[in-house]
Design brief:
Length: 83
């Protein structure tokens, strides 16, 4: 099972009244490195998704960030290059 599939199953089993509450211990803005740990995807894959607009994020200085709610929505909707 791929890491995103496992994350999707975990995410899909929770109520979505407050999507950000699932990962309360994480910062509101996730770095590429944070998402690498959470998903098991490579940094380049994550950067490609952000740069292509598939995963909504922003650049602050030289670093890329994604609001954790955007990552959760991305997983729920089956986001991905092939998704």
């Amino acid at each position: 099972m791929y890491a995103l599939d496992a994350l999707s199953e975990h995410v899909g089993s929770h109520s979505w009244e407050r999507p950000g509450s699932l990962f309360q211990d994480l910062p509101d803005l996730l770095t590429v490195q944070d998402m690498k740990v959470l998903t098991g995807l490579s940094e380049q894959t994550i950067r490609t998704e952000i740069n292509n607009g598939g995963l909504p994020g922003c650049r602050i200085g030289r670093r890329l960030y994604v609001p954790k709610v955007n990552l959760i929505n991305y997983v729920i909707t089956g986001g991905g290059i092939n998704g």
